[in-house]
Amino acid sequence: MWGSTAAARIAPELKNTADVNKGASLLGQVLQIVSTAAVLRTIPVSLTRNIRTANALVAADGGGGDWYGVTGAAPGAYVDNVGTVIVPGDGSAAWMRHVQGRASINWFGAVADGDLAGSGTDNYAAVQAAFDAGLYDYGAEQGIYVLSAKPVLPVGASLTGAGMGRTIFDCNIGVTGSFGLSSLCKIEGFTVDSSFYPSSAIADTVNYGLSSRRIDLLTECTVRDIEIKNAGGGLTFGSSANNCRVYNYKFSDIRERNGQGAGYHISGAGDVRLFGIFGKNSDRGCEIEDGATDCLVQGGKLKSIYPVGYAGQPGGYSTTSFTLNAHSHDGLGGCKNIAYKDLVVDDCLLSIDSQRSSGVNINDMPQSCSWEDIRIVSPRTTAQAPNPIYIEGINCRLKNIILEGVALTSGDAVARFFGSDSRGCGVDGLEVGQKYNGTAVKVDAPRTTIKGLMIEDQTGVATVAGLVVVSAKHCRIMENDFITPESADSYIHVLNGADHCQVTKNKVTNPTLNDVATAAVFVEASYCRVSENEFDSTLNSPAVVVDAAAAFNGGLLNDITGNNIKNGVAGNVIEFRANTNRNLCTGNVTASNSQVILNSGTDNSVVNNKRGNVFS
Predict the structure, then answer these.
(1) Residues near 19 by Cβ (< 8 Å), separated by ≥ 6?
(2) How far apart are CA 444 and CA 355, in angstroms?
């Protein structure tokens, strides 16, 4: 036992907490508490002492932890990194943090003290120090972290926040990106925001550009539960960002001075899959282009995607705006096998868009891209972008597309298939169930198939250009339904030059076409086949008309076969007009003897048709 003299001497030293070499340190393994890593750096390393820091650099920064000593190495062997290694001397000994589970960026001095109003500690150096510490699983606490530059997450590392809207990184003005991700990285559960972008104070002379405040990805990265707001761009997948996966991604207010801020941008990458995309109030939605291959976007909703301006900037609509797109530029290679599925697009410009943006190289065309189970609500249109759906490409397909609240100007089309180099594109299931003033589908691209079109309840609307207008060759218009349609032109209009087209197995119910100069199906081309169509209820215009601009200029060698014309009023139900030549009309059925097949052309063959009970 200690004598009274020793006890009297040691008692004050045990009580001394001001001197780091006194107090609890005298009891060996008893835990000693100091305020910060800076204080710990003043304590000689001991193998018999355990120390706890209450903070990393400043009070209440959330970076405290427990430390143990290691010794016996060569000088310089240990390097101080603030967060997990503290070196008091020459680097031959160090205090090492007890690391269990996820490493917090707060250990390295990051402080979540921002307010999204422009104030707070700049955490760039602390976050980058954390990423440089050689660890692989990082966490960020709840709060707002201000960043003035872009930290880069190392290969194979992960960063996890407390959740979208709970952990927020406020990115400073002029930052070229919020985070850079190396290969095999994972990020989850945080929001990237900005306290001042976009702002009415940003002048047109300052180009913050597409790189402002976005997250750049490389190969095999995973993104889950991430939100980006008030930025110049969202997620960015460059040519090296292959095999990436994104789950539950949100973006809003993505604006760029030229109207080109996109929620995400995939350029040249392959096998990128995004599941659950929710975006709003941005210049562009989903931008996939220039050699990107085998990408999928499935599930989610985009709302109010169109460019707007702010003080001193161009603003307004842009011809380069789009929502669900597949693009390419000359010499950069066409994107291939891009698929969009199960999405809602509400109040957006160019809802579905596929095109070659420049050049004439056919290899730069988008190829084998698809849009399936897409619901388009109240699409926006402008003079520069008059079509909610615009398709230019090779073997690009639409399936099960529903449009609601369409409002077009006269002469526009809900969907347009465009481009002389396009081929093999089409739609299987397109429903336009409300009144609008325009064409449903305009086909300028050869070898396009229009199938499963549903146009319903157009009564009282004078559609000027016809419901389906075809100006390209080798197209197929088949198995479409026109229910109570109205048009100032024809329901299906095959223009002069659109040769070798097929119009087959379409159904017209309760038509309100009253102009004898038009027809339900109007053919001005040659070598076309109109067959097995059904025209039901009162039809006050011809069911089928074959016309020619002049002798041997259209209206030549067409085949009108096996059509069924029900309940029509008396008059001409099929007409071959003047200058038509060598057409065939056979196997058609009309409801009564008073319905007439008119042949005003030359060398047309009208045989084996049935009018009421009479064959002619």
Answers:
(1) none
(2) 13
Contact between 489 and 513 under an 8 Å Cβ cutoff? The reply is no
| Separation in Å, CA 563 to CA 392, 417, 487, 500, 586 | 32, 27, 21, 18, 9
For the chain, the maximum distance between any two Cα atoms, rounded to a whole number of angstroms, is 135
Structure letter (DSSP) for residue 380: B
**Cα(193)–Cα(266) distance, integer angstroms:** 21
Residue pair 196/258 in contact (Cβ under 8 Å)? The answer is: no
Rounded to two decimals, what is the model's pTM?
Answer: 0.88
**Do residues 158 and 136 make contact, with C-beta atoms less than 8 angstroms apart?**
yes
Task: For residue 233, give both structure tokens.
Answer: 């761009």
pLDDT tens digits for range 379-413: 988 877 888 999 999 999 999 999 988 877 656 88
E strand intervals along 71-221: 85-86, 94-97, 103-104, 137-139, 143-147, 152-153, 158-160, 167-171, 179-181, 186-193, 215-217
Q: What is the pLDDT of residue 411?
A: 60
Q: What is the Cα–Cα distance from 369 to 96, expressed in whole angstroms?
A: 54
Distance between CA atoms of residues 281 and 265, nearest Å: 16
553-571: average pLDDT: 86
Where b means 16+ CB within 10 Å and e means fewer, 219-249 reads bbbbbbbbbbbbbbbbbbbeeebbbbbbbbb
Whether the Cβ atoms of residue 263 and residue 285 lie closer than 8 Å to each other: yes
CB atoms within 10 A of CB 315: 15
Exposure string of 75-103, with b = 16+ CB inside 10 Å and e = fewer, is eeebeebbbbbbbbeebbbbbebeeeeeb
The residue whose two tokens read 């996966």 is 245
Q: Please write the tens of the pLDDT for every residue from 163-184.
A: 999 999 988 655 556 778 889 9
Under 8 Å CB-to-CB from 270, ≥6 apart: which residues?
242, 243, 292, 293, 294, 295
In single-letter form, the type of residue at position 354 comes to S
Does residue 387 sit in helix, strand or coil?
coil
